[in-house]
Sequence to fold (272 residues):
Amino acid sequence: MMQKNKVSNLKVKLKKRSVTIGSWITLGHPSIAEIMASAGFDWLTVDMEHSAITLEQAQHLIQVIELAGCIPLVRVGSNDPTLIKRVMDAGSYGIIVPQVNSVKEALQAVHAVKYPPEGTRGVGLGRAQGYGTDFEQYKAWNSTESIVIPQIENIRAVNAIDEILAVDNIDAFIVGPYDLSASLGVPGQFDHPAFLRAMKKIQHAIDKNAHVSPGFHVVPPESTLVTEKIREGYTFLAYSLDSLLLADTCRSGLKQILGESYHPKMLIKRGT
Fold:
């Protein structure tokens, strides 16, 4: 059952634009979640879009993250009301929704999280609701404290960002730089003029929409990149992801030990 009184209120921090730092979980083992939650992150996102994590695994990860005193979020695979309902019933404090490119899609995400009259979510009696023993308390919590975060990761979303952020019950947004650059036809080219123009539009939206916490997923495991984004005004920061943090630690350590003789192995060879 959810122990919300044991963790800090992320909703308040987002509203105040206090800096919070989290990370992404793509490996479905509970020990990964426990290690990362104990490291001091404000929140952790279970990624169900770009991972093999199942709904059952997601619930286990949510439990571990919460019991470690960290806030569990889930990045769903799509803006699907059924999937959103199920991860919320599993105990997620909120959702991150990929490819929200319009007001209609932002409203769909909010409605999938909230019960009527604020939304359209069906009522279940899962872990979030104390397996049926705590529905009234959960209903009140869900109305005021559940979190909805659209990803701005397409040029269509950038062009509609002010309208998206004006939707009631949107708490923050998070930029997905790789998909945003891909939508511009320049995947991974973060110094391309088209990408920089899109980021400038996002910066204008940050300045205009003070009620929403601006977020950015810094994918490389480089802490200086996170501090740069904080200086730019971003307050909801995702610092890399589990697999990259693990790989970077292993490789940097071996490189220091072996020097020029170190050559990392490729996990999978493609082609000949």
